[in-house]
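ESCALATION

Customer reports they have been waiting on this structure for their group meeting. Please prioritize. Original submission:
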Amino acid sequence: MWIAENWKEYEVLDTSSGEKLERWGDYILVRPDPQVIWHTPHNNPGWKHKNGHYHRSSKGGGEWEFIDLPKEWDIHYRTLTFHLKPFSFKHTGLFPEQAVNWDWFSELIAGAGHPVKVLNLFAYTGGATLSAAAAGAQVTHVDASKGMVTWAKENAVSSGLGDKPIRWLVDDCVKFVEREIRRGNRYDAVIMDPPSYGRGPKGELWKMEDNIWSFLELTAQLLSDKPLFFLINSYTTGLQPAVLSYMLQSILQKRFGGMVTSDEIGLPVSETGLILPCGASGRWQPAK
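Update from on-call: job pushed to the front of the queue and completed.
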């Protein structure tokens, strides 16, 4: 498992009974997590001194209970600054487990020895975009949500990256990739974090299991002759790391050679020492 263990201001304090207890800077949150099927004692004092609690409804969705929590606050990772705020369906605007991937590709970018063009699809609030830009890449950031792209821009400014070569685009990722192919544009690296389920601007249905293969084939057409890396993340329960490996091997390794690795990503839990699984990632890179 790839473990995001270099955080200073974020921590999974404990897990029990379908929930995780987290420290986000100065604030303690309790949020649901479907992986936490065990029922262990709530020994960590944070359970009783939380600042916010997202309660999942048996009918789907849920709502936040705010005890002593600001509307917005900041958290830092290395040189990056992220604005956090609790919003729909338990989220805060950041997936801390992805830091293990940020570290991986940042090292590749910094060591490339030439300008690197990165395409970040389904780019959310910009964690990967900012990490790539901080490492020296030119980044094209694409997300269908205007609010998420605005949030990512704010994170860039707060991180001192407001003047870096980042293109911010509000667009449907599939439609954007199709247009880029027609334009003849190419990228040295691709990051994608597709949702398990969603709809496009005209109601187009996206389902990860049904659409990801064709989208990977499509996006691979944007790679330069000597690409630097390709990263795909999955939070879809049915897609195991081996599935990600097979897709990358079939589409990328067959064409470019290189190495494919896939694994679960996770976060350490302070109270118990276990690693909380948080999805999976598949990576392709040239042979060393």
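Sent to customer with the following note: The longest helix spans residues 241-256.
Escalation resolved.
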